């Protein structure tokens, strides 16, 4: 692999494995100044296979240090997705010298049992580390949650400390629903309840839950959020992540009455309306003094993840995001925005004030010339903060941002006032031949009706775009594979004199690997 991370399509501001196959983020825990990121990893190929947990750490969720593989398959099975916690009080007894261990909770996937036609081939196990996550031992009494009822698709445990009830809480996916279990010690688990069969989208199996309390911004009340990834069945095909807002009494999750209406009859509310943010969950053990709920997702889609045109490695993670719960006139919504730590990558700020947007307006100032050396990754790696005001709502056509290159390839993202929709168009974005599902334009109806101007924060990398619209109320994450880096960027409007950029800033971003 090219350890300079200069291979074509290689993300420059997103985490990607040095080489080989990666999918879901796993085991995210903050401990002793480090954000741990484990991930579904197959070290022998660039397509999915017997799963391990790859490992990286970061002090800022932006710059990453690769560490050796943390968990290998063993006689109980491959190591599927899961979570990690700091067992501060050593409830498990697996700590050393009076210190609490880090505990990883994961799914064993037993492919031999699966081949033999059994249904009980997935079950939950744990491993522990007493050296800041550097080495891990599997617990000798695994599995801690056997699959006694032979439920096919029984996986992806997310564990957290339920502070109010002083117990560990585990939520995992059981085919078409989520199960809640509790434990005093991370070893002995009791079934509490299940949720979801009659709510949300069920176009595929449920996977990779997360479950946490969130205070409603500006209201001083707390709600619980249940995140449920689903594949297939996403709003734009393939994989996507939905969520539910409700209350937790220590045993049962009850949907909020108003939110219930939005998730009946197969309706769903999605965390991200793009095609490439899957299986994302949040970090555990974030200090109370920080107080943020921090998220990262896998920036791909099972529809084509195995086929995308990268060579040494496959897949990247989204940028780390802060999640907040807001109550809008349309209901409870999670707002996602890039973590503030990402700002350290900004260079060469450009103010873009006051212009009426016309056909295509190149943002020349901070774009490196096509002849710039590839290490000058201001080519293709940008962040924009834009606020648009409509001058003529009746006449206004689509407007937004276009990335392009000298091969005539382009990617467009923006807003269409006539439909009241955001869109992401990768039909002409470069190589799309690897999947007949890839080249398309998606549109997203639900925008924050409470917002007066149209705000778009955009993060662009070599092979991805992330749109955080209306302050994070509507999010689109999409990947693409241009034959050459998108070294040109423009604002565009399909109609003249209809929309004004009331405020704007553009930054070239420094790459994270230097
Ligand atoms: C989600 C998922 C999980 C599973 C893992 C296997 O992308 O299917 O449900 O644990 O990937 O790699």
Overview of the structural elements:
By secondary structure, this protein is mainly beta. The chain folds into two domains: 20-338, Glycosyl hydrolase domain, family 43 (Tachylectin-2, Chain A), CATH 2.115.10.20; 341-509, Exo-inulinase, domain 1 (Jelly Rolls). It contains two helices and 33 strands. The chain has a six-stranded antiparallel β-sheet, with no helix packed on it. Strand 11 and strand 12 (190-195) form a beta hairpin. The protein is globular. The structure holds beta-D-fructofuranose. The site of beta-D-fructofuranose (FRU) has 12 residues, from strand 1, strand 5, strand 9 and strand 13.
Features:
binds beta-D-fructofuranose; 6-stranded antiparallel β-sheet; Tachylectin-2, Chain A; 2 domains; Jelly Rolls; 514 residues; mainly beta; globular
**Which stretches are low in confidence, meaning pLDDT under 50 for 5 or more residues running?**
none
Mean of all residue-level pLDDT scores: 94
| SS field, number of helical segments | 2
End-to-end Cα distance, whole Å, is 16 Å
Give me the secondary-structure topology:
Elements: E1 20-31, E2 34-42, E3 52-58, E4 65-71, E5 78-86, E6 102-109, H1 111-115, E7 122-129, E8 137-138, E9 154-162, E10 167-174, E11 178-183, E12 190-195, E13 205-215, E14 222-231, E15 240-248, E16 253-255, H2 257-262, E17 278-282, E18 293-298, E19 313-314, E20 321-328, E21 331-338, E22 346-351, E23 360-362, E24 382-390, E25 399-404, E26 410-416, E27 421-425, E28 441-444, E29 454-461, E30 464-469, E31 474-479, E32 488-493, E33 499-509
Beta-D-fructofuranose binds at residues 23-24, 40, 51, 80-81, 107, 155-156, 207-208, 279.
